[in-house]
Amino acid sequence: MKKVNAKETFKTLGFALLFATVFRTFFFQPFAIPSGSMMPNLILGDKLLVEKFIYGYSKYSFPLNMIPFSGKILDFKAPERGDIVVFKLPEQGNEYFIKRVIGLPGDEIEVKNGIVYVNGKANKTEYIKKDVLNIQADGIPFTLAKYAYENGYNSVPVYMYKEKNIDNYSYYIYKFSKDGNFMDDNFAKVKVPENHYFMMGDNRNNSADSRFQSMGFVSEDKIIGKARMIFFSSSAHFYEINKFSSEIYWNRMLQRLDKNIES
What we know:
CATH superfamily: Umud Fragment, subunit A
Oligomer: single chain
Order of helices and strands: HEEEEEEEEHEEEEEEE
Protein name: Signal peptidase I
Number of domains: 1
Membrane topology: Single-pass membrane protein; Single-pass type II membrane protein
Strand content: 25-35%
CATH class: Mainly Beta
Catalytic activity: Cleavage of hydrophobic, N-terminal signal or leader sequences from secreted and periplasmic proteins
Helix content: 10-25%
């Protein structure tokens, strides 16, 4: 029986770790959906591949922001309206966020009665169906979760729409009100500053995004990459191995996220 060489084993593990680090840092980074703010398109349990090289690299692209430089390098392409992007907010502990790009640098953004206007043009919406959104009524003081908590509900009705932006890119969104009279269905006109983007969640009334001071406009150097694909989806936690086979969402596996729903 051949003896296992400890030195060779450590060498192999070292190369594997180096390869994984380089792949994650420069090419594709896995990302777990942390909330329901991007429903109905992304749900808790989805695991995504985020393409990092498309928008270039900044200090936030690297672990612990360890390479200090300003701006972006090797940026092949700028984010477009409709892209689903992952970004960091250093002022919130370098936490990762995932939202959809609604406004580009120089765009004027306004929300009136739940309708988004970009440079004076309305994003077209088409009603699809009524749905029910399950929410953990645990007292989170924000929009739908707050509504559920105050009314003792564990689920609330939502309305699914297809939204088409001014570039004719379509995707699904959730709204809490068909009449556009919910508390964040109106947002005064703002102009997106240079090198910044305006982000919104697809779950419009349950998303902390650029409409709120806690996030505001997102600078381009904080954008990590573009969400490309759901590579795995399960309601089970990583340590609940016994539940994996029964709680995997097979219909969500390998689902592309950069596809126009009308194409």
